[in-house]
Specification:
The protein is an alpha+beta fold. It has six helices and twelve strands. α4 crosses α6. The structure holds dinuclear copper ion (CUA).
């Protein structure tokens, strides 16, 4: 994204320099050219085409700003839309650290390891206040909000170590909420992944939590449970009691755990208790990954 952002930025700087010089130059030129030459001289009336003048100085700036708008919007949409195939990593911001959670189970604090040349999607949320995850070298940043998942994606092109910052004032030690992103060659990254803690994948931790919280007493793999079947749910469209259609994405599963009565699946009773306060943000991510893994069970090995 960096080259696209830079191109737009340099265009704006160039445009600003051009008009600054043009206007300053004209001021000096006119001041000299039309200066009062005799002590009692009086200015001459100008008879120009007012209509043409009005149209020109309306249409030219409009055209320029439209170029900026369309160009800026295209960069924005490219940033806001992650490509379909991404390596997903969860991010939890809290006062005052960044916690990164890889799908294979590795966790990191204020350090993020990613492979070079791959689309990486960060699914972010906050445990407390609004933070903002900023990778200056990649020219991407995103507000990290409590109670929501916000995505950010990038495609690192050069191995190395780059800064990452919190870019939203979030309390006393906001300025210390910094870290590094380490971009590695694919094979080094694989090595790093396998060298991590043997905590098991996010999905398997979620599976354990699922049993610990007794979710499995109602959500059974067949339709004998009192809750909806979760196998194959992720990514599907769910019809709610109110007749609404919702896509079962991360945000929906999160909401259904914390506020189960918000969107009841058609045909089920609102009997599920809330798990607000019982499951941490990391626990939620584990549960979400577990539900996802139920959806893709046949290909689980291939991941
Ligand atoms: Cu977190 Cu500033």
């Amino acid at each position: 994204m960096a080259s696209r952002v830079d191109a737009l930025y340099f265009f704006l700087v160039g445009l600003t320099i051009f008009f600054s010089l043009l206007i300053a130059g004209l001021i000096v030129y006119f001041a000299v050219k039309y200066r009062r030459r005799a002590p009692h001289a009086v200015g001459e009336r100008q008879h120009g085409n007012m209509m043409l003048l009005e149209i020109t100085w309306t249409v030219v700036p409009l055209a320029i700003t439209m170029v900026i708008f369309v160009w800026g919007a295209s960069v924005y949409f490219a940033m806001a839309t992650p490509p379909p195939e991404t390596l997903n990593i969860y991010v939890v911001g809290k006062q005052w650290m960044w916690k990164f959670q890889h799908l294979d189970g590795q966790r990191e604090i204020n350090e993020l390891h990613v492979p070079v040349g791959r689309n990486v999607k960060l699914i972010t949320t906050s445990e407390d206040v609004i933070h903002d995850l900023f990778f200056p070298a990649f020219r991407v940043k995103v507000d990290v909000l409590p109670g929501r998942y916000v995505n950010l994606w990038f495609h690192a092109t050069t191995p190395g170590r780059y800064h990452l910052f919190c870019a939203e004032y979030c309390g006393t030690r906001h300025s210390g909420m910094i870290g590094d992103v380490i971009v590695m060659e694919a094979n080094e990254y694989q090595e790093w992944l396998s060298g991590g803690a043997a905590e098991g994948s996010l999905a398997s931790a979620g599976g354990k939590l699922f049993t610990d919280l007794a979710c499995n007493s109602c959500h059974r793999p067949d339709s004998t449970g009192r809750g909806p079947v979760l196998n194959g749910l992720f990514g599907k469209t769910v019809v709610t009691q109110a007749g609404e259609m919702v896509v079962a994405d991360e945000a929906y599963i999160r909401e259904s755990i914390l506020n189960p009565s918000a969107k009841i699946t058609a045909g089920y009773q609102p009997i599920m208790p809330t798990f607000q306060g019982l499951v941490s943000e990391e626990g939620l991510l584990q549960l979400i990954e577990y539900v996802k893994s139920l959806g893709v069970q046949p290909q689980l090995e291939a991941r």
